[in-house]
Amino acid sequence: MSKALVLIDLQNDYFPGGRMELVGADAAVGQAASLLAAFRQRSLPVVHVRHVATRAGATFFLPGTPGADIHAAVQPAAGERVVVKHFPNAFRETELPASLRELGATQLVFAGMMTHMCVDTTVRAAADLGFKCSLAHDACATRDLRFGASQVSAADVQVAYLAALDGAFASVRPAAELAAEA
Q1: Among 52, 71, 136, 166, which lies 20 to 30 A Cα-Cα from 65?
Q2: Inter-residue long-range contacts of 13-17, CB under 8 Å, 24+ positions, other chains counted
């Protein structure tokens, strides 16, 4: 079984000063960078997923803007694949399935943003496609959400989505633990 790291949407618009700032983005990208370093040290495959907004009315990840660029802490190295997506699910209408097959990957380790959107849909899709999935819970970030009159804190959104993924779709663990197993 081959293991690959998949970094989802670690892009500038999610960080302070960006168009869709997330809670805890800086801490999360630091953990993702540590995980990335562990995979690079062991010459394991890495796939960067980058969202480029194409839907009418999009407000962030706009084509050609610095906000759509991958964060400096996790910049792709020569030879690392970058998959561009236009939907939350990184498998939908992208090169990701073919890239993972070509790499011989059967186990995927995920980190990225937003936990409740692109991370959730991508991890669930990967599990449905038969991949054995792990998710670095401290290498992800999300934001406060609103439903009707209720405000849900980012911390509560994070815990709820990680709890829903853990076990059924992925093994949700700290980045350091997943890096040690790389």
Answers
A1: 136
A2: 13/60, 13/61, 13/65, 13/67, 13/68, 14/71, 14/113, 14/114, 14/141, 15/71
Is residue 100 a contact partner of residue 47, using CB atoms and an 8 Å limit?
yes
d(Cα 19, Cα 32) in Å, to the nearest integer? 21
The first and second tokens of residue 68, run together, are 């759509």
Token output for 52: 């480029």
List residues with catalytic annotation.
9, 85, 118
pLDDT in tens, the chain (182 residues): 699 999 999 999 999 999 999 999 999 999 999 999 999 999 999 999 999 999 999 999 999 999 999 999 999 999 999 999 999 999 999 999 999 999 999 999 999 999 999 999 999 999 999 999 999 999 999 999 999 999 999 999 999 999 999 999 999 999 999 999 99
HSE-CB at 122 with a 13 A cutoff on CA atoms is 34
- At 91, the amino acid letter reads F
**Whole-structure pTM over 0.85, yes or no?**
yes
Phi, psi of 13 (to 5 degrees): -65, -15
